[in-house]
Amino acid sequence: MNHFWQFATSSSIRFGRGSVDSLASEVANRRLQSPVFVMDSTIESLPQVQKAISSVRSVAKGCSVFTGGEPEPSLEVAEAAIEIARASHADSVIGIGGGSNLDIAKVVAVVLKHGGRARDYFGFGKVPGPTLPLIAIPTTAGTGSEVSHSAVLTDTIAQVKVSTLSPYLRPALALIDSSLSESCPAKVTAHSGIDALVHAIEALTNRPNAQMNIAADNENEPAVYEPRAYEGSYSFTSMLALEAIRNIQRCLVRAVESPNDRDARDGMAYAAMLAGMAFSNSGVGLVHALEYPIGALTHCSHGEGNGLLLPYVMEFNKPMCHSSMIQIASILTGQPEDGCSCEEAIVAIQNLQIRIGIRPRLRDLGLRREQIDQVAEKAIQIERLMLVTARRPNLDDLKQILSNAW
Ligand SMILES: NC(=O)c1ccc[n+]([C@@H]2O[C@H](COP(=O)([O-])OP(=O)(O)OC[C@H]3O[C@@H](n4cnc5c(N)ncnc54)[C@H](O)[C@@H]3O)[C@@H](O)[C@H]2O)c1
Ligand SMILES: [Zn+2]
Known about the structure:
Blueprint: E1 12-15, H1 23-29, E2 35-38, H2 41-44, H3 47-59, E3 64-66, H4 75-87, E4 92-97, H5 99-114, E5 123-124, E6 134-138, E7 150-155, E8 160-165, E9 173-176, H6 186-205, H7 209-212, H8 235-257, H9 262-282, H10 286-298, H11 302-317, H12 322-333, H13 342-356, H14 372-380, H15 383-388, H16 395-405
Parallel strand pairs: 1-9, 2-3, 2-4, 4-6, 5-8, 6-9
Antiparallel strand pairs: 7-8
The structure holds nicotinamide-adenine-dinucleotide and zinc ion (ZN).
Zinc ion is lined by residues 143, 195, 198-199, 288, 302, 306.
């Protein structure tokens, strides 16, 4: 077996309620003079965020604020943020919000440092070196962008989500303060929370790392390591993913139903972080590959699109990841592994979808039947995901999965 992987995450993580209050001292300690905040108008209106902005202003006179973020952000919005950051000679970036704002912040940090435009860095490994210092403060519990190496934007012309992936996109500091997520509407809690579950399940069930490595001719020689977007699944990230799934099982429904349940909010913030660590090393897979074109066509939230697709993709994947599916079933049903089947994992997820209000069919999102071929053709081109997903599909497989989900 050729195990050969590397693991990375944000340089520093501060986790806990109240951690956002240490933002100004972090800015001062890091000698940042002109940070640009990247957020949207909803986030700007939160009292804790108002407080954070004014405390940073007191230590960094050149501080500026971009409030034009939007859900599933377009390239144009990212360019608008870049313009504000350039005009204010930003020396660092503070992203605060859901994954959408954090991803814009990452792109701003890249372009301010290396020049050009957001689209110059699409794909894996195009960022030539470290970015401006980046602080990420999540206000949803889901995307894991605070620890991940990717930023996702929507190309509204090509009608597809486009990702920039680079080891340099991992934030210098993640401040994970679950009290910020208490103001999330139930829908945002549900959609971002199930995205974290998809991250954990895809990281766990993806192709094993040992199969991803190019074997050396001589068995006693080490495998040949090529830098790549994702490593495939391996024991360390599986451990993180399983712990994420346990926390999601314990906390997601509670967080949706009782927004001020602190323990549930903490558990979900923790789960999203763990799942982010897992997937940003091991990879996401086919659920994400299908969601990217569907999201661009229907404007559904990333989380809902993923959550909807998850059971259909698990059904397709199950012959290739039987033992991981049993682990998932056991966590989600509370039954011992030896009495569980793959089918129970899928049913448990369908039940969870109903509890938290994830719509069950692609037609509910507004996808038209005649768009299925187009979605399949776009998804199959996302090679980094096709390479790592549990069971490599062909075009007909994708059309079948989409028809089942439609
Ligand atoms: N970079 C990554 O690793 C990664 C991973 C997964 C998803 N994503 C991307 O993240 C985006 C989705 O992010 P998301 O699910 O966090 O949602 P989001 O950032 O799109 O936010 C959704 C809505 O919720 C509001 N909101 C967020 N936090 C709030 C709060 N505390 N109180 C009140 N309102 C709040 C926002 O203003 C927004 O209107 C997508 O663009 C997706 O592609 C990125
Ligand atoms: Zn995701």
